[in-house]
Amino acid sequence: MSSYSRxxxxxxxxxxxxxxxxxxxxxxxxxxxxxxxxxxxxxxxLRALLSSALPQRSISTFVRFAVPxxxxxxxxxxxxxxxxxxxxxxxxxxxxxxxxxxDEDWANEDEATRIAHLTVxxxxxxxxxxxxxxxxxxxxxxxxxxxIMFRMHAxxxxxxxxxxxxxxxxxxxKHLKTAGMMHGLTKKANYVPGFQDxxxxxxxTASEPGxxxxxxxxxxxxxxxWWALDQDKRMALMKEHTxxxxxxxxxxxxxxxxxxxxxxxxxxxxxxxxxxxDFHGLVLALEKVKEFQYTRRFGHPTxxxxxxxxxxxxxxxxx
Length: 319
Prior knowledge:
Strand 6 (252-258) and strand 7 form a beta hairpin. Helix 4 (36-50) runs antiparallel to helix 5, helix 4 (36-50) packs antiparallel against helix 8 (111-128) and helix 8 runs antiparallel to helix 14. This protein has two domains: 3-75; 81-319, Alpha-Beta Plaits, CATH 3.30.70.3420. The protein is built from 14 helices and nine strands. It is an alpha+beta fold.
């Protein structure tokens, strides 16, 4: 068996593992890690060549040319990413949640084809990261609504639109069916400035360190009676609402998006946690406050998934 044959006998999982970011010097890790599927696709092509009737010399020539090309691609610097911290913390930023299911044809594709299409996904995401912050979540196995979800933040909503158009027209996007899409806008807190100083201080409680792998998205619509209340009445109700959330600030992170006029919703609530039992307790506590009586829609759908990096999503969907 030739050296090429021995190299190509390695399973996809072994090859993907060889591209762990910690294996490479700082500066190259993220690029190499994101291109792990490219290498696997190349190996698949080479395996097919080895099983063909081509002379060994022809295959050797292909390897000598193909591998340097792949390495060259890896060395290309990526575009400067958008200021993620700024997009996630400042008001006036548009947030979009887009959930998709994969069609039946996806399961029928062979692994090499799935990897090739997922590499296209990586390219589309990287092309747009200069203007928008993109987070990915695997919902398959936890939600019957979708397989994958994107959370996007952009100063201009049309930048998100451009990304989604490119995504859905790509080879990977051809396998996507839209399960749901929600738009919202981040704003300064409406009621916190009127809270007592102690509650303001409590709201600054730091979140527990460590990863929070679970993400939950819940759309909310209020009743007409809620909007008919005067500011003081709503302030009093939101104080009670906020008090109910204080015990969970350390373990459940929350972000609010205002959707009135942008969608058939009033709010999108986004949560991150490593302790789903605490999130469950938070929801039960919120359902007991008077403000909840003015809620017309809570969920429908409720989306739950695990936050993953782009390479992790690619690896999960390639199986």
